[in-house]
Amino acid sequence: MEKEVSRVKRIVGELRVPSDKSISHRSVILTSMADGISTVKNFLKAGDTLTTVNVYRKLGIKIEENGGVIKVHGKGLKGFTEPDDILDMGNSGTTTRLTLGVLAGQEFFSVMTGDESLRRRPMGRVTQPLKNMNADIDGRNDGTLLPISVRGSQLKGISFFNQKASAQVKSAIIIAGMNAEGETTVEEPFKSRDHTEKMLQFMGAPITVSEGDVYRVTVKTAEKLNPIDVEVPADPSSAAFFAAAAVIVPGSSLILKEVLINPTRDGFFRKLKEMGADVKYENVREKTGEMVADIHVRYSPDLRGIKIEKKDVPSMVDEIPVFAVVATQAEGETVITGASELRVKESDRIKAVVKNLRNVGVDVEELEDGMIIRGKQRIKGGYVDSYKDHRIAMAFSILGLVSESGIKIKDADCAYISYPEFFEHLQSVVER
Ligand code: S3P
């Protein structure tokens, strides 16, 4: 489905964007390994997280849905049952990589596959360390691409350096570590999102975290996990689109309610402030172990270009496409480097952003690991391709709001992967 987004007068009001995708995935995957029933309030109902629900049902877990609340009937660390068919991971990298960590330590055979995009994405970053733990894994391209098969085996602990600072990889190894003999350690050069560690600590897992020169997580063989009750806050990665809109559309003022501001996730908002944007955290509070705030964002006419470097990337990795959109409206150069991970997301996001920016009249330079945007630029408008990538579709919808002739986005319905209500929410806060 094609969508057209055109210039608006301003963005105003309040919005509670959908719940956090990363925490929602974990709230099913981890609680399904608990002994007993967990309750998850405000579970995100979107393409990717519903994939997780389907997959865990196929692995023998009873999951009840009642409005925004789900109940997961956990069956213990090794309580899953052999699926009678191939597991379909859809578009979801998080479901795939975390589930590889789950399945490696079970006592049965399973096969997983995914859509065209997911079948291109690198899985060796998870399957190789799991093989080092004695996992029995095979798949296309020497076990590095889906479809992948796993025959459960007795795992052993390892020490692993998570070079790419990928939270999905870290989480897979930690999960496998709970079913392994001995101790498993994961170290990261830059701390990636820590929801797995936090939730497992909450569930009473034998896991410790230390932060010094490197971030280190240690996990021992787990006997059991306690069921929990969690409430999922609003997703900062979804809030980022509307924050970007309010910052660049003249006269705007928008309050984004109950947004997760965990420091491993709020890099986008911190970088907006560094650019000179009017972004304020109000009513900061804790919600089931995570910090949340209402984020008040106002139009910011004096944005300046800044640098995004490798160390900045993990805490804003999914927000870089929409950050590039904001950068077109900042005075001077915005230089993004150290972001080569973007090339292996749902699409090659560096290529997608650069091509689309050029299509709507922006002068942008592509780098191997990022891009340079020289602002402030006029956005003529035109036709862009989402490459069936939800974050690209939503980022370019936001740019449409300040375009002269509107932006048409190909396959814009892919927004449902993380944010099914995106276009309705956009309608609800624009003034024409
Ligand atoms: C995620 C981690 C990030 C992120 C993805 C969700 C997670 O991926 O891009 O959308 O929930 O762990 P990487 O682990 O590949 O950096």
Automatic annotation (TrEMBL):
Residues 7-426 form the Enolpyruvate transferase domain. It is an enzyme of class 2 (transferase). InterPro entries: Enolpyruvate_Tfrase_dom (IPR001986), Enolpyruvate_Tfrase_sf (IPR036968), EPSP_synthase (IPR006264), EPSP_synthase_CS (IPR023193), RNA3'P_cycl/enolpyr_Trfase_a/b (IPR013792). GO terms for molecular function: 3-phosphoshikimate 1-carboxyvinyltransferase activity. Its EC number is 2.5.1.19. It is found in: Cytoplasm. 3-phosphoshikimate binds at K21, S22, R26, S166, Q168, D318, K345. Its main location: cytoplasm. Phosphoenolpyruvate binds at K21, G93, R121, Q168, R349, R391. Pathway: Metabolic intermediate biosynthesis; chorismate biosynthesis; chorismate from D-erythrose 4-phosphate and phosphoenolpyruvate: step 6/7. HAMAP family: EPSP_synth (MF_00210). Catalyzes the transfer of the enolpyruvyl moiety of phosphoenolpyruvate (PEP) to the 5-hydroxyl of shikimate-3-phosphate (S3P) to produce enolpyruvyl shikimate-3-phosphate and inorganic phosphate. Monomer. Belongs to the EPSP synthase family. This is 3-phosphoshikimate 1-carboxyvinyltransferase. The gene is aroA.
